[in-house]
Write a structure and sequence with these properties.
The complex is a heterodimer. Chain A is 29% helix and 20% strand. By secondary structure, chain A is an alpha+beta fold. In chain A, helix 11 packs antiparallel against helix 12 and helix 12 runs antiparallel to helix 13. The radius of gyration of chain A is 19 Å and the shape is globular. Chain B contains 19 helices and 32 strands. Classes of the chains: A alpha+beta, B alpha+beta.
Chain lengths: 328, 777
């Protein structure tokens, strides 16, 4: 760990003022950043603790939900409105990490957590373009079982590890930001970048910009949602493949569908090809499978993760089948 | 395993064969263990009582001090920097920034480290404990990716860790062998273990296999595993002049003291190693480079040092279980009788250690067959020295052997339990010795009844429960009984009638302190409260390794010897005025706080009374255990029958274990509570071996890529079902207390029971561990 200063922000404006200095990082629950500090992968000169900022969950008249970015993951998953209206989100959060970590981790921090690629973590012994731009990528031909099959580049094949974000992507969440230049809003699906030739640039956040809240629009009445995470052990493991889905079907027809994948891409992967293929079509297992095929048509598997292509197809098909009440 | 046999071989060498011959000629009664321990007869006392562990309250209150929890005046904290290349020389090394960093007391590298001897390599001398025998910071050479290259001492751990990150180093790399293919290309040796080649031939097994009407011939692979005890390795180290005091996490305190003395050119008596509590050993809590580095840095800095490895540090410098590639072929008659057993294959090790994972050991005693061909070939890599890890040999050897038996049963159309029982040997199939105690058939029958084996559908892939395919599998568990030479114990009886027993033994969470207090109290005729059991200190008597599941027997034989000596002394003190007058030591027993004639409890005098009449405040005796001749006269093993119910998701291939039963035959169980915990712990570790444990060793540079519990998977609570354990509780008449060590047998057979259950569930035979979902989709 490299020495740093530590300051608690009183409010968002205070945080943004403190965070404007170069080398400052915002600290939420610390469940990822502190690990990265210990590994000297993150070496901020200053930590601005934003865990004391608003952690309220506001149920608004239009049926939407406004979630303070400092809300702990456990509190969000337990919230009555989340459990009843957004089961996909509650399930995604509860599928992640451990109870202890969920008690600490904040919503803002979860969104900004960094990849679990082993080569990214091996600061001293491995090459990584995300950590040290231009250095090369040891994961391309190394252990890449947990790596991306969609959206990766020749410079980086790491995945975004969050479960919560996959649900947020499927829920059309909007992220509220505050920075030196003022406030703005971004779709969650527009927050994370694909790596391209700059895998070190992971989000669309401007320097010093802070996530202050996450907004969930109301789901269509009659929509059902769920989350399925596939992993090697029963708990405390990152997703090999996960699927978040919102489905509104009526008389065997798909009215609305939103589908997002985790564990397969550098960002929470909104499966728009599959959605487009399904919307207005039949809610059948065959249609779900065909949609999954279309989404995975561009998959580019690596040495160790070829199984994810078929696994993603099967999981998408099964999750949509469950929501539609049609068995495989 | 054969930590014991190795120490024995080292100590006894060629004399062993002569002794063995003499033992064979001796009548049973002459042989230690030939006359059953009288405690075996005790039926209603402390032995077998489910007593809660006596160190439990201290541990849950955080008052039990572990190796990194001894604060010393003036103590500094150590951080270790590791190499990032597998082979070569340090080209440049810049420690300036680290030395200038806040709080830094010392940066030790090969340039300023004191001159030291290499560690004596485990198994090369009676008390050798070193994991490797390489120079430690004595030159600029790199031997593996992860080798320590510098130690920083600072006033706080954080300062030491930060300063370590400021060390600048470059390497002149040299070609390294870090791939299995590359290692093979360099040639193979027959593994040498216990001073003997790992090669056994009986008859012509290949010819018998070719002629067999039914046969299986398959290759099984198991990956590298790393040690992940709950307590990472740590030591608190101080010099007092030329005396070295090490508070360690150790499973071999006497070995450690001797070995550290050898490294620093000291007399063994100048080194004291204590280890009151250990958070799990499993074969890894021996001497690795960190204790030597800590002691060297402490000497150089003139300050006590706490060196606590990070989890990554344990992965980098403490060895684990090596990979294996095993061929198992079994030829059988149509009725299932084995005519041929072939178990051969390859393991990887280094030139600087001596541990060719002996996966053929379980096959030497499990089944009868007309012919055997067993062989372990070693190939060599430039990597961290591999080492002993819970049931080395047996844990992975039983995976291959017991999967093959299951495969053969399927080919024969026989029930796999009946096939095993059909091939039950009447005597040791290789050595020809009689078994001291073997009741595995009872264990199979009892386990099958309790598990509901009769409900198993033998057709693979036939049972489905919603999204899950369900199957049952079983496997034999087996582990040898060992007792190493060198056991000794001290007993001090004080005038209040209480007794202190001391043995340089270890409590690593197994329940040793509790069980041995029970045994000593029962032997002495005292209550638990009147007996204290001292352990974990190299100045205590005995050379007692907590390894090879041999500690229970070693302590038991040592305490028996000390108790005999105490009884002799007490009878002398009792003299002619005692009700015990005229009786010999073999005619009396401990009873009701004193001695009594066997079978005549009224002929009794209390310890308090004997000492009072003799005007003695205390009586101290020390005695050595007899040599472990029982293991040469009988084939001695623990046995078990493992039953698993696995559920495999038909869509994803995810495997979840829904039920597990271990039915054991391990002699007398001393404490059912701590024993059940050990059995379950072994089984849980076996579930990890079956389903998820795998060190990611990047062959491009010989580097471990998952040195963290987030990425190196071991079972979490949700992976572990309720585990049922039962046992025969039949005493082995040739073992102290009639008991066998039980620390390792739980992990044996478990991997195969899981794989066999998965086969029964899915019809897919996976011969490559771990059984991850991609292999079952």
């Amino acid at each position: 760990m490299t020495p740093f200063s530590y300051t608690r922000a009183g409010d968002a404006a205070d945080a943004v003022r403190l965070g404007a200095f170069g080398g400052a990082k915002y600290l939420g629950g610390g469940t990822n950043l502190v690990d990265l500090l210990r590994e000297t992968i993150e070496r901020p000169s200053a930590l601005v603790d934003v865990a004391g900022l608003p952690a309220t969950i506001e149920e608004r008249e239009d049926g939407s939900l406004l979630i303070g970015a400092a809300t702990r993951n456990a509190a969000l998953a337990e919230h009555r409105a989340v459990r009843s209206h957004y089961p996909v989100l509650a399930r995604a959060i509860l599928a992640g990490a451990s109870a202890q970590i969920r008690n600490m981790a904040t919503v803002g921090g979860n969104i900004l957590q960094r990849t679990r690629c082993a080569y990214f973590y091996d600061d001293e012994g491995s090459r990584c373009n995300k950590r040290s731009p231009g250095q090369g990528c040891d994961a391309l031909d190394g252990f890449n079982r947990i790596h991306a099959i969609l959206g990766a580049s020749a410079d980086c094949v790491a995945t975004h590890p969050s479960d919560m974000c996959v649900a947020l992507a499927a829920l059309d969440a909007t992220v509220h930001l505050q920075g030196p230049a003022g406030t703005r809003r971004l779709k969650l699906t527009g927050l994370h970048r694909l790596p391209g030739t700059r895998p070190d640039l992971e989000t669309a956040l401007e320097p010093g910009e802070l996530i202050t809240a996450v907004e969930l629009p109301a789901l269509p009445a009659g929509a059902r949602s769920t989350y399925r995470k596939v992993r090697d052990r029963a708990s405390y493991a990152f997703a090999l493949v996960s699927v978040a889905a919102v489905l509104e079907a009526d008389s065997g027809t798909v009215r609305e569908v939103r589908l997002a994948l985790g564990g397969v891409a550098p960002k929470p992967w909104r499966a728009r090809k599959a959605e487009d293929a399904l919307r207005g079509g039949p809610a059948t297992v065959q249609a779900f499978r065909a949609a999954a095929e279309s989404e995975l048509a561009d998959a580019a598997p690596l040495r160790d993760n070829g199984f994810k292509v078929e696994l993603a197809k099967r999981t998408i098909t099964a999750v949509l089948g469950d929501l539609a009440g049609v068995a495989a | 395993m054969s930590i014991l046999d190795n120490a024995k071989a080292a100590a006894q060498g060629a004399a062993q064969a002569v002794m063995k011959k003499a033992v064979e000629l001796a009548p049973d009664a002459w042989v230690p263990g030939g006359k059953p321990d009288p405690l075996i007869r005790s039926k209603h006392g402390l032995i077998g009582a489910p007593i809660s562990r006596i160190d439990g309250p201290l541990k849950v209150q955080g008052r039990a001090k572990f190796a990194a929890e001894f604060p010393l005046d003036g103590m500094v904290y150590a951080a270790v920097a590791f190499s990032t290349v597998p082979k070569g020389r340090i080209a440049t090394l810049d420690t300036g920034a680290a030395e200038a960093a806040a709080g830094v007391v010392l940066v030790m590298t090969h340039r300023n480290a004191p001159r030291m001897n290499n560690m004596p390599l485990f198994m090369t001398a009676e008390k050798a404990a070193g994991g490797d025998n390489l120079p430690i910071l004595q030159d600029d050479r790199i031997h593996w990716n992860g080798q320590p290259i510098a130690v920083v001492l600072a006033e706080s751990q954080e300062q030491a860790d930060h300063a370590k990150s400021l060390i600048g180093v470059t390497y002149a790399q040299e070609p390294a062998v870090t791939t299995l293919a590359g290692a093979r290309a360099q040639g193979a040796d027959i593994g040498m273990f216990q001073g003997q080649p790992l090669k056994t031939t009986v008859g012509d097994a290949e010819a018998a296999l070719a002629a067999a009407p039914v046969a299986i011939d398959a290759t099984y692979t198991t990956p590298r595993h790393n040690h992940n005890a709950i307590e990472p390795h740590a030591a608190t180290i101080a010099w007092h002049g030329d005396e070295l005091i090490v508070q360690d996490a150790a499973q071999a305190v006497s070995h450690m003291a001797w070995s550290l003395a050898s490294v620093f050119g000291l007399d063994e008596r100048q080194v004291r190693v204590t280890s009151p509590y250990v958070g799990g050993g499993f074969g890894a809590k021996t001497l690795w480079q960190h204790q030597v580095l800590g002691a060297a840095a402490a000497r150089l800095a003139g300050r006590p040092v706490r060196i606590a490895l990070s989890r990554e540090g344990v992965f980098r410098i403490v060895g684990g279980r090596t990979l294996t590639e095993q061929r198992v072929a079994i030829g059988a008659e149509a009725d299932g009788r084995f005519t041929s057993i072939i178990h051969t294959g390859t393991i990887v090790m280094t030139r600087h250690n001596a541990m060719p994972e002996p996966f053929i050991l379980p096959t030497r005693g499990a089944y009868a067959a007309d012919s055997f061909k067993l062989e372990v070939e070693a190939v060599y890599m430039d990597m961290l020295a591999n080492t002993f890890m819970r049931a080395p040999g047996e844990a992975v050897g039983t995976f291959a052997l017991e999967c093959a038996v299951d495969e053969l049963a399927a080919r024969l159309g026989m029930d796999p339990i009946e096939l095993r029982i059909r091939n039950e040997p009447a005597k040791d199939p290789i050595e020809g010795l009689p078994f001291s105690s073997r009741h595995i058939v009872e264990a199979w029958r009892a386990g099958a009844a309790r598990f509901g084996w009769a409900r198993r559908n033998p057709a693979p892939g036939a049972v489905r429960d919603g999204a899950w395919r369900v199957g049952m599998g079983c496997a034999t568990a087996t582990y040898p009984y060992y007792r190493m030479p060198g056991g000794a114990a001290r007993m001090k009886l004080t005038k209040d009638g209480s007794v202190r027993v001391e043995v340089a033994a270890h409590e690593m969470g197994m329940g040793t302190a509790t069980a041995q207090t029970q045994v000593a109290a029962e032997r002495l005729g005292l209550s638990m409260a009147q007996v204290s059991f001292g352990y974990g200190d190299s100045i205590m008597p005995g050379v007692v390794l907590a390894g090879g599941s041999q500690q229970t027997a070693s302590i038991g034989a040592s305490v028996m010897a000390a108790h005999h000596a105490l009884t002799v002394e007490l009878l002398k003190l009792a003299g002619n005025d005692s009700p015990l007058a005229g009786l010999g030591a073999d005619e009396v027993e401990g009873l009701d706080g004193g001695l009594a004639k066997r079978g005549e409890p009224d002929r009794h005098e209390s310890y308090v009374s004997i000492l009072a009449r003799a005007r003695r405040d205390a009586l101290v005796v020390e005695a050595a255990a007899p040599p472990p001749l029982e293991t040469q006269h009988w084939s001695m093993h623990s046995h078990g029958a493992m039953f698993c119910e696995a559920r495999v998701n038909a869509m994803t291939g995810e495997t979840r274990i829904s039920r597990f039963l271990g039915s054991f035959d391990c002699g007398r169980i001393l404490n059912p509570k701590t024993a059940a915990s050990q059995f379950r712990g072994g089984i849980i570790m076996g579930l990890g071996l079956a389903l998820m444990e795998e060190t990611q060793f990047d062959e491009r540079k010989g580097r471990v890529m998952n040195p963290s519990l987030a990425e190196y998977h071991i079972p979490v609570h949700m992976d572990v079902p309720e585990i049922d354990v039962i046992w025969t509780d039949i005493p082995d008449p040739h073992a102290p207390m009639g008991a066998h060590g039980i620390g390792e047998i739980g992990i044996t057979g478990t991997g195969a029971a899981v794989a066999n259950a998965v086969f029964n569930a899915t019809g897919k035979r996976v011969r490559d561990l771990p059984l991850t979902l991609d292999k079952l989709m």
